[in-house]
Amino acid sequence: MLITHDTRCALDTVVDLVNTVPEDESATDGLADVAALQEFVGTHEVSDIGMLSELDLSAVRRIRGRFAAVFAAPDARAAAGLINDLVAAAGTTPRLTDHDGYDWHIHYFAPGASVADHLAADCGMALAFFVVAGEQERLRRCEAPDCRRAFVDLSRNRSRRYCDSRTCGNRLHVAAYRARRKEAAG
Hints:
Blueprint: H1 5-18, H2 34-43, H3 54-72, H4 76-89, E1 95-97, E2 105-107, H5 115-132, E3 139-141, E4 150-152, H6 165-185
Helix pairs in contact: 1-5, 3-4, 3-5, 4-5
């Protein structure tokens, strides 16, 4: 599956957006305030965004939950319905652009769109490409018991199970190794 630069950026953005949800009550929301939203927008180089407000923060949190539902969708039909609703509500307006030193690519948000509509349109379309390509199962949640972070499995054989093999994957492999050693020593 060919993934263009702008689609990859949108996928990284939607994964990071979904992962701003606190994993439990003791964790802090990654979008705790407007300053955190501004940092998120800056980190992901979201273009054509004006001054952000509490209304923007509230709207982005709402679409974040809707994106999380896409990662939890049981099948492509369910994911497609969720994505269709997101993209339609955003007032999608595809247009070619070549801003900020990037070659020609497509933006799906309408000019002057809110940050929530911008994210819903561009990130929704990136997820839509996976459903169209029959690759919805690549939109996953980490299989580590204490982690449910979202990720997109871009491995060749669709075998990635953890959001990060160096943390979650390694931690589980070490725990399994220690359990085997303890059993063998038994």
